[in-house]
Amino acid sequence: MASPALAQSKSSDKGQAKPAQIDRNGVLILTRSTLLALDQANKTGNYTVLRDLGSPNFQANSAARLGEIFAAQRKQALDFGAIAVLEPQLTLLPQIEPDGMLHMAGFFPSAPLQIEFELLFEPVDRHWRIFAVSVNLKAGGPQAPDKPVADQSRPAPATSPPEPPSISVGKKVKSTKP
Question: In this predicted model, what pLDDT tens digit does every residue of 74-86 receive, in sequence order?
Answer without folding.
Answer: 888 878 888 889 9
